[in-house]
Amino acid sequence: MEKPLFTIEAVMRICGVCHAAHAIASAEAFEHALGIVPPRNGLIVREAIGLLNRVQSHIIHLTMLIQDLVEHQRISRILRSALTVLELVNNSLARVGGSPTHPKHSYWRYIEAFNGYTD
């Protein structure tokens, strides 16, 4: 294989939401197979990325289910709050992991579908 890290990059594409979980699992599989023990700081950064990705996943799922969970007149306010928190999580992922999962423009367009919803 010309580029051994390709496997980690490829498994990240399995899911558009939980990419970090797949990358972490793939990296850990390589480490276990080759007997590699990452430095403590690397493990801490990996854990932070995994936790941020989990929070991000919950927020994204909330935005998809919000119409079924919340009264019509409250959707816009809650969705805007959720997307604001999602932006904070994405910014944190970018700082810790090198890039956000979803660029800001990709998920803020989603709110345009709720222009008819008012608080």
Q: How would you characterize this protein structure?
A:
The protein has 5 helices and no strands. By secondary structure, it is an all-alpha fold. The chain has one domain. Helix 2 packs antiparallel against helix 3 and helix 3 runs antiparallel to helix 4. The radius of gyration is 17 Å and the shape is elongated. The model has no long low-confidence stretch (mean pLDDT 82).
Secondary structure elements and their pairing?
Elements: H1 6-11, H2 19-34, H3 40-69, H4 75-97, H5 104-108
Helix pairs in contact: 2-3, 3-4
Q: What are the salient characteristics of this protein?
A:
119 residues; mainly alpha; 5 helices
Helix fraction by DSSP (H/I, runs of at least 4): 55-70%
The Cα radius of gyration reads: 17 Å
Domains (count): 1
Distance between the termini: 55 Å
Mean pLDDT: 82
Continuous helix count: 5
Order of helices and strands: HHHHH
DSSP, total strands: 0
Beta-strand content: under 5%
Specify the overall morphology: elongated
Q: Structural class of the secondary structure composition?
A: mainly alpha
Biggest beta-sheet profile = none
